[in-house]
Amino acid sequence: MKKYSIGLDLGTSSVKGVLFDGENVIKSCSAPFEIKTCSLKGGAKYLGFSADDYAETVFVVISDLAAEVSGKISGIAMASASGNTVICDRNGNSVLNVYSWTNAPFVEESEKVYGIIDKKCTAYVSGWSYFGTFPLAHLAHVKIHEPEILESCGKICMSTEYLLYKMTGKWGIDRSTAVPFYLLEQETGKWHKPYLDALDLTEDKLPKVYESGDLLGKITETFSKKYGIDKNCKVFLGSFDHPSGAIANNVVNESELLLSCGTSWVLFFPYHDRKKLIENGLLCDTFLSKEKDLWGAMSSVAQISKNIDKIIENNISKTDKIKLFNEYAEKAERGAGGLKINPLTDAEKDFSAYKKENIARAVMEGAANLLKEKLDFLQTLGIDFNSVKMAGGPSQSKIWVDIICYTINKPVEVTYGVDSGAVGAAIRVLE
């Protein structure tokens, strides 16, 4: 008898999900959620979204997938970009709109709470250098502008843990998803006391720490009845999104690379030397550190997709934009007639004097060149790759894959494409 699992990929502004049977994606679906400007009582602004609306969006996706097999789901797991902060009361209900990871850095608040933060120090603690945003900064923002919330709250977590609690009634976080939380010591799996002390927080206000793939619990009876899922369905801890995509695409050994092209374009690869990764400014995930002594390394072209979208909408089309973008790029010659576009620096420029075909091609070539710059840097560290897989929306475009192949001078394979993160989560359930 076949077992079915549901894997979720919780992105920056949308959720993707797959129904998986161990080999094939039976069904996939997605839904957006809205990031908006929110305010604390004193008027301090931040970008965020409703925790309950977000949860309902995710749970409806789960319900739609489960309906395909009459709710007979053996397990659910999530991959998530995370970095979104949720503060709950003692009953597990959100007391504020969720802080989105896309906020601009809260520099002033962070320095008042933590002092000047050494980026390398945070990297050695959590695996990531400090960017002035993500939960460490969000919590400083709350502490400065509305400190009574932290004093009286029951639980502090990220959006993924909030979903897990609403599904199972249990609080849990895995060491991979916890990386952008910054509060967890990556190597020990313990909460980092200096940051907690600066925020006047105690460990009982944080979720219990698990490993990726650990069982958290079964769904509650209430969740089962409301969303039409078998009451014996189990919920497992997942991981950060890029390592989940690597699991789906079998990028599990050194010299293997995953190009994960979402909101940010990320080069993810397994590597044995955590210190070398951190000393050279690369992000580090727990990945297979326990099983194979391999950490997950990440180098990113941050939030490039927003700039690409802006260039497309301003210079190609605002409607049916992805389809037209690909069609125009396919008509252009290599080199885009001499036009060069750097999506990171040229998003506001007017390219109306150029053919749309060349604009589309130049954007793709510009993005590919940014990836190549990252690969060239890795080569200077003695890191090279024999195998390259690609995931995310651009992996669905043959012309874009071809351009990347040519630019980095390596074959690029696409397996699960845009579903990679969700499939990687689903695989954890069936392991």
List keywords for this structure.
431 residues, alpha/beta, Nucleotidyltransferase, domain 5, six-stranded mixed β-sheet
Number of strands: 19
Tell me the CATH superfamily of the largest domain. ATPase, nucleotide binding domain
Find the CATH topology of the largest domain. Answer: Nucleotidyltransferase, domain 5
* Text of the CATH class of the largest domain: Alpha Beta
Described by strand count, sense and barrel closure, the largest sheet is: 6 strands, mixed
Arrangement of strands in the largest sheet: 3-2-1-6-13-12
- The count of helical stretches stands at 15
CATH architecture of the largest domain: 2-Layer Sandwich
Helical residue percent band: 25-40%
| Cα end-to-end separation | 16 Å
Question: What is shown here, in short?
Answer:
The chain has 431 residues and is α/β, with parallel strands linked by helices. The chain has helices at 51-67, 107-114, 119-126, 134-145, 147-152, 159-168, 193-199, 221-227, 241-248, 274-279, 304-315, 321-331, 356-380, 398-408, 420-430; strands at residues 5-10, 14-20, 25-32, 36-39, 45-49, 75-80, 85-88, 98-99, 155-158, 172-174, 208-210, 215-218, 234-240, 256-261, 265-271, 283-288, 294-301, 387-392, 413-414.
Q: How would you characterize the overall build of this protein?
A:
- This protein has 431 residues and is of the alpha/beta class.
- The chain folds into 2 domains: 5-242 and 423-430, Nucleotidyltransferase, domain 5 (2-Layer Sandwich); 251-414, Nucleotidyltransferase, domain 5 (2-Layer Sandwich).
- Helix content is 37%, strand content 23%.
- It is built from 15 helices and 19 strands.
- The protein has helices at residues 51-67, 107-114, 119-126, 134-145, 147-152, 159-168, 193-199, 221-227, 241-248, 274-279, 304-315, 321-331, 356-380, 398-408, 420-430, and strands at residues 5-10, 14-20, 25-32, 36-39, 45-49, 75-80, 85-88, 98-99, 155-158, 172-174, 208-210, 215-218, 234-240, 256-261, 265-271, 283-288, 294-301, 387-392, 413-414.
- The strands form 5 sheets. A 6-stranded mixed beta sheet has the order 3-2-1-6-13-12.
- A hairpin with a 3-residue loop joins strand 14 (256-261) and strand 15 (265-271).
- The two termini are 16 Å apart.
